[in-house]
Amino acid sequence: MLLEPIFIKYGVNVVITGHDHVYERLTPQKGIYYFVAGSAGQLRKGNIRRSDATAAFFDQDQSFMLVEIAGSDFHFQVISRTGKTVDSGVLYRQRQPRETGRTLDGDASDWADTVSH
Predict the structure, then answer these.
(1) Which of 3.30.460.80, 3.40.50.300, 3.40.50.2300, 3.60.21.10 is the CATH number of 4-116?
(2) What is residue 19's three-state secondary structure?
(3) Cβ distance 44 to 20 under 8 Å?
(4) What's the predicted TM-score (pTM) here?
(5) Is 18 in contact with 37 (CB distance < 8 Å)?
(6) How far, in Å, CA of 98 to CA of 29, rounded?
(7) Which terminal residue of the chain has fewer beta carbons within 10 Å of its beta carbon, N or C?
(8) How high is the pLDDT of residue 18?
(9) Distance between CA 105 and CA 117 in Å, rounded?
(10) Residue 6: in which H helix or E strand, if any?
(11) Distance between CA atoms of residues 99 and 84, nearest Å
(12) CA-to-CA distance for 76 and 69, rounded, in angstroms?
């Protein structure tokens, strides 16, 4: 990932992108959660190539992602065009150093997760 060193350097915990026309959530990569939330546009049905890094995906219909940040909790819910919840969960901020060995300051942290499918 080209931008990952910058994300790590500045303590980014969650990255949400949308270019691909599907929904996908990856397993944490170096303490960072990655989401692709791009299935509100023209759908690429059946386009996901699942890998070991794929935690959840949805490519069968259009969907959108709701996000709420409450204190140190990051709540997310992905809802299909028909109203079905296709992924949801809460990521909790944790005060632990990342794999880089960098000492954390007051603003940087990792996240633990509770995810439902």
Answers:
(1) 3.60.21.10
(2) coil
(3) yes
(4) 0.76
(5) yes
(6) 10
(7) C
(8) 85
(9) 33
(10) helix 4-9
(11) 36
(12) 9
